[in-house]
């Protein structure tokens, strides 16, 4: 949580499976356990710069659940907002993957002025959508064709309920010698260029720099160990993994659309 003074709105962020609230925050003396993954932290930094008070909560298990945990988190959000004396401000939410399903569910109970579901279609086939359901923005990666089909279907469902909906499509990105150093604190330009050269040498990227497979399905860590054992420090493996997943654009947290997402929130504040 951060930046409650002079805030114009409250933003709740819900992580995906196998992630935690600490992924959104840079490590500091106030948060020694924080991780600050590149896309997650940039979402927070962009929100703070636009005067959003940001609240993150970790799920109990690997992924979010929709029974008792849903009620507990709703109570935590309400308690925190009141404790910070922010009850008169608009409340918005963004959830990624499992967090997107979770946000779609709690939005039926809490009074959000708008929400964003990232790489998630929501639970709209498992819930009765209330008449005052908040405006909903879908941020997704069309390469995941099944999810895109469900989003198209659910957008029609929400429109039939007079809910304002929109979508942002996130496309694949080419790697470059500075791609990783530009996006990950702690990765220098020299290491970034060496990794790019290694990925090309191993055939992980095509002639234009695009990932041939999802980062999770690419044995890039093995290639680093075989070629340059000291090329990448252990704490940077997860950040690099996130950026390779983002470049392939199938299913990953992304901060590249932060401005459009925050403008969506701002456009629905009353």
UniProtKB/TrEMBL annotation:
Q: Does the keyword Signal apply?
A: yes
Quick check: keyword Signal in the entry?
A: yes
Judging by the UniProt lineage, the source's domain of life is Eukaryota
Q: Which UniProt keywords apply?
A: Signal
| Residues making up the signal peptide according to the UniProt record | 1-21
Q: Which residues form a coiled coil?
A: none
Recorded hits in InterPro entries, A to Z, give: AB_hydrolase_fold
Name-wise, this protein is Peptidase S9 prolyl oligopeptidase catalytic domain-containing protein
């Amino acid at each position: 949580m951060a930046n409650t003074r002079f805030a114009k709105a409250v933003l709740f962020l819900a992580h995906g499976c196998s992630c935690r609230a600490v992924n959104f925050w840079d490590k500091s003396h106030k948060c020694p356990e924080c991780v600050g993954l590149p896309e997650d932290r940039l979402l927070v930094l962009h929100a703070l710069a636009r005067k959003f008070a940001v609240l993150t909560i970790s799920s109990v298990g690997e992924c979010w659940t929709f029974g008792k945990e849903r009620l507990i988190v709703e109570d935590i959000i309400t308690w925190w907002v009141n404790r910070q004396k922010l009850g008169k401000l608009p409340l918005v939410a963004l959830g990624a993957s499992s967090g997107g399903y979770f946000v779609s569910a709690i939005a039926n109970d809490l009074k959000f002025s708008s929400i964003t579901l990232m790489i998630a279609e929501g639970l709209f086939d498992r819930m009765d959508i209330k008449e005052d359901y908040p405006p909903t923005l879908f941020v997704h990666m069309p390469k995941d064709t099944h999810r895109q089909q469900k989003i198209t279907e659910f957008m029609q469902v929400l429109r039939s309920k007079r809910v304002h909906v929109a979508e942002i499509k996130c496309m694949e990105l080419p790697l470059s010698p500075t791609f990783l150093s530009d996006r990950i604190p702690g990765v220098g330009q020299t290491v970034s260029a060496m990794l790019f050269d290694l990925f090309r040498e191993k055939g992980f990227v095509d002639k234009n720099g695009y990932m041939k497979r999802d980062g999770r399905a690419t044995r890039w860590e093995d290639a680093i160990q075989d070629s340059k054992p000291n090329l990448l420090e252990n704490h940077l493996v997860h950040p690099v993994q996130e950026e390779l997943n983002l470049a392939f654009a199938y299913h990953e947290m992304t901060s590249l659309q932060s401005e459009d997402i925050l403008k969506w929130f701002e456009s629905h504040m009353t």
